[in-house]
Amino acid sequence: MKHIQTVEELLLLHFITHSIIKSKDFDSALEITLQKICESTGWIYGESWMPSADGTRLEYGKAWFSNNKKIERFKKESESFEFLSGAGLPGRVWSSKKPEWISIISNGNFPRKQFAIDAGLKTAIGIPIIDKNNVIAVICFITSEILEKDEQIIEFISNIALQLGVFFNHKKTKDLLHKSEREIRTILDNIPDIFYRTNKDGQFIMISNAVKGILGYEPEELIGKRVADLYADPDERSKFLKKLEESGGRINGYEALLKRKDGSYIWVSTNAQYYTDENGNIAGVEGIVRDITEHKKLEDELLKTQKLEAIGLLAGGIAHDFNNLLTAIIGNIGLSKMYLQPDNKIFDWLTTAEKACGQAKELSSRLITFSKGGLPIKNIISMPDLIREAISELLNGTNILCECNFQDDLYPAKIDKMQIKQVIRNVIINAKEAMSNGGFLKIDANNITITKKDNLPLKEWSYIKLSIEDNGKGIEEENLAKIFDPYFTTKAMGSEKGSGLGLSICHSIIKKHDGLITVDSKAEAGTTVKIYLPSAAK
Fold first, then answer.
1. How many other CB atoms are there within 10 angstroms of residue 453's CB atom?
2. DSSP of 316-369, one letter per residue?
3. What is the distance between the alpha carbons of residues 399 and 404, in angstroms, rounded to a whole number?
4. For residue 47, which of 106, 108, 96, 115 has the smallest C-alpha distance?
5. Is residue 151 part of a domain?
6. Does residue 94 lie within any of the structural domains?
7. In CATH, what number is assigned to the domain containing residue 245?
8. Which residues pair with 49 in a beta bridge?
9. Do residues 466 and 360 share a domain?
10. What's the Rg (C-alpha) of the chain?
11. Domain range spanning residue 311?
12. E strand residue ranges, 277-328
């Protein structure tokens, strides 16, 4: 049994209000109400009972709804029933002017019990529609599930019944419509998701204030604009409409990439449906759009981790076997050199081969670090000292200016010194290569406490946040998503160029330290690498 969320309740109430105002009579307004409540709550049958002309009994109303063919006989038999005050579910609700819930029809006071049992009906609820202390109708809903009394459902339907009575009988159509629109607008403008409505041509005719924070537009800027223009993929709108049509006019969780006003892109999830005009014709689409960019990042991070672990396991196994072979080769080269004079040309060739084997062993060691075999050996380390060591080794004598800002009371970190130093070195080397003609490198280190509100894939704890920012050539957008992939590089392959393992190893090391590494970059606008490491603070 579905529970209607507050925003959806308000949208439904707004829809019903329109229906009452536009309907030619009370029965047609009731019929739409019964349909919408059944569709929204999951109840399979809704009926109305109206006081007779002389006010002595309840008669089966013209308004009813069901999308289940098994109900036809029950409905037909119900048409012949009449209820006096206090008799049957409708009569008792009429008499008491209060809702009534029957959890098990077969055990309750339900004159149509046998027909209900034959139709597989289990639970029923009756709600009065009251105006000026008079019951002007009783609406009943029945389901094929056995349900315990649900006060939220009762309150939800009672609120709608209350509005039906007040709105219809007082005939304050125009004022009530405006009031309802103002209320719904106030609610919609204060929720974090975008509510929108388009006409049949796909142009915005209404959009909530949340669009400012999510897409960067003022609502007025988008009125009259085509929804299709916001999609990153020009064909996405037609795909969405096709899916909406195939889903029977209602779609939930449709994910797409949208383009913001500033040119950046975000992932959104859309719940949408057709809405109709007063004649029941489809007038357009309305829906709620939620920003899921951070959620998608978390999903990508999980997939990336799983991919790295799988490749790392394979790489580690190969590296261990490779190491054994290299050990034998290096040993035999050493033995061979013992039988040669240093001035012998063969001695030089063997020395070159020995160096190449040494480079291969270094690559093998990096593969082992990348794999699960390279688990960190942790000690409590001062981060500023470690960072300065890496800077001194790599930037002394270069035309790169480096500025360091370390928080005075920066937490110590429990880390593998050599592994984290390798991470910092790899990042600085990449920055150095991106600023081949010189540049500026800024390194900040601060204490930070991570909570659930930060939406990061980290445990709640205190961390050291290390930020390394350069003003180099940056990374092309199409390459940014692949920078942590093993063997991905934009540099030429080879011992003196790029192996494509630098950032993969960084990612693996930081992951094994229960930390996080992220990269923000734009082509020709520099790169910022952020590293989060759990502190050793108590």
1. 7
2. HHHHHHHHHHHHHHHHHHHHHHHTS-TTSHHHHHHHHHHHHHHHHHHHHHHHHH
3. 16
4. 115
5. yes
6. yes
7. 3.30.450.20
8. 60, 138
9. no
10. 35
11. 304-370
12. 282-291
Tokens 């970190």 -> residue: 413
The tokens of 289 are what?
Answer: 């759009």
Cα–Cα distance between 371 and 318 in angstroms, integer?
A: 10
Q: Can you tell me the distance from the alpha carbon of 338 to that of 350, in angstroms, rounded to the nearest whole number? A: 11
Report angle CA 47, 50, 51 to the nearest 5 degrees: 155
Of 140, 139, 96, give the one whose Cα is nearest residue 121: 140
Q: How far apart are CA 411 and CA 446, in angstroms?
A: 8
Only one residue has tokens 């308004």, namely 63
Shared domain for 67 and 35, answered yes or no, is yes
Q: What are the structure tokens assigned to 52, written together?
A: 């007779």
Contacts of 426-429 with CB under 8 Å at 24 or more apart are 426/502, 426/503, 426/505, 426/506, 427/468, 427/506, 427/529, 427/531, 428/390, 428/391, 428/394, 428/395, 428/468, 429/394, 429/502
Hey, what are 449's tokens?
């406490």
pLDDT tens, the chain, 538 aa long = 455 556 777 777 777 777 766 777 778 878 988 998 898 888 999 999 999 999 999 999 999 999 888 899 999 999 999 999 999 999 999 999 999 999 999 998 899 999 999 999 999 999 999 988 889 999 999 999 999 999 988 988 888 888 788 766 665 455 566 777 777 778 777 888 999 999 999 999 999 999 999 999 999 999 999 999 999 998 999 999 999 999 999 999 999 999 999 988 999 999 999 999 888 899 999 999 999 988 887 777 777 667 666 666 666 667 777 778 888 888 889 899 898 898 899 999 999 998 888 877 776 766 666 555 456 778 899 999 999 888 888 888 788 889 999 999 999 999 988 889 889 988 998 888 888 888 999 999 999 999 888 878 899 999 999 999 999 888 887 777 777 766 566 654 443 344 456 687 788 889 889 999 999 988 888 899 999 999 987 6
Dihedral sign computed on CA atoms, order 331, 335, 336, 338 = positive
Looking at 291, 315, 350, the residue that finishes a domain is 291
Contact 282, 241 (CB under 8 A): no
**CA separation for the pair 464, 516 (Å, rounded):** 11
State how far the Cα of 268 lies from the Cα of 256, in Å rounded to an integer.
Answer: 6
Identify the residue whose tokens are 């998503």.
481
Residues 413 and 520 in one domain: yes
Question: Beta-strand (E) ranges in 390-437?
Answer: 400-406, 413-415
Asked if residue 182 is part of any domain, the answer here is: no
